[in-house]
TrEMBL record:
GO molecular function: hydrolase activity
Major location (coarse): membrane
Beta-lactamase-related domain mapped to chain residues: 83-404
Protein name: Serine hydrolase
Biased composition (Low complexity): 23-34, 41-54
Keywords: Hydrolase, Membrane
PANTHER family per the UniProt record, alphabetical: D-ALANYL-D-ALANINE-CARBOXYPEPTIDASE/ENDOPEPTIDASE AMPH (PTHR46825), PENICILLIN-BINDING PROTEIN 4 (PTHR46825:SF11)
GO cellular component, one term: membrane
SUPFAM superfamilies reported for this sequence: beta-lactamase/transpeptidase-like
Keyword Hydrolase attributed: yes
Cellular location(s): Membrane
Source organism of the structure: Microbispora bryophytorum
Keyword Hydrolase on entry: yes
Lineage, broadest ranks: Bacteria, Bacillati, Actinomycetota, Actinomycetes, Streptosporangiales
Amino acid sequence: MQKGQTDSRAMPYNWQKTDTIANSSSDQNSLSDLTNRPAQTSDSTATGDTSDSTQKSDRPVTSPATSSAPQDAAASAEMLAYLRDLAAKKQFTGSALVVRHGRVLARFAAGEADESRHIPNRPDTVYRVMSVTKQITSMIVLKLRDRGLFKLNDPICRYIVPEYIKACPAAWRPITIRETLTHTSGIPNIETLPSYLANVTRPTTPRKLIQQFVNLPLDFEPGTMWKYTNSGYVLAGALIQAVTHQPYGAVLRKLITGPLNLPNTGYSRGYPPAGYAKGYFTLGSPAPLLNGSELFSATGVYSTVDDLARWDRAFGSYKVAPPATVKQAFTPQAKCPSTGCLNLPSSAYAFGWLVDRLQGHRLRYHPGLFMGYTASNMYLPDDDIQVVLLSNVQDTDTAGIARHLATLALDL
């Protein structure tokens, strides 16, 4: 892939370190401990974590989980050996987390978060999550729907005229809120437009983003096909702001990160918190410094692997939303092309989740890739398995690595 090219297969994910005792034989390596404890500053060292502020950046940080079950320990060792081998071959830079039934099987980090300053990636490094944002934006929309602010089959124009566009284009009149979230609107993908790619480092507004594609012809009649487009999620963000009269980031805090205790997850119209991983197209080749306002509600969330694992588990516990809403979030909304949605193994697209099976087990996941970042967030709801891969090197195969780790977790 050439510099500046986009590929919707993978997207960055963010994780920040906590002071869990990751290799304790007690229950202190459970996800609740891992994610409930406050994040440490970048120069502190967690018990059971071999990283420190003077650590060489090419030395992987690992935290194996030791369980009372021997098979857990064996799987943990195999996962860490696999990740160490990839890191040694310069095939993985970033952070990884594998959790099963609330127990951490592997926590791992390798490579540099900032090559110019030789700051290493750690299990607590914050990344941009890119299109993992979509499952979060979708859930915000579903929760606002649950409050009676709109219906999914309402036309999107009803809520964005005149604040975001002066008038609804004739071709847009049939487009529903549901279709903006499921890539079935027919609206061209803003991420492929030269006008967008030329300005990803500059501040903008949702209105200006929408102006870039509002007058373009549709790729197909709304509701008749599936084609990935960030534009629909830009409109979803405008919808969220229009009906709540609050900025997207404030609604994110109120409905998602606050109630679920995701302290290292958020959205900024500028940049993530200090110390976040800088993006690279390949090792040694920096990507542009992306402005969050350009990414907005399609790809703008930053987070950590711990927070994303907790986010996944909130679906299984119904802490994120009532059972009916969780079920709908995972329910297929559009059939994938014959090659799979995003050219990945999948049969359908739900609300920000790809629908698939792994060794016969239900799998919901979302990958992504853009401007120096790549990631994969995998969740097997029936098995309570979460696999989160975040990388700040764009040519990393996070989707393939995550699938292999998920297979190892299933084999327990």
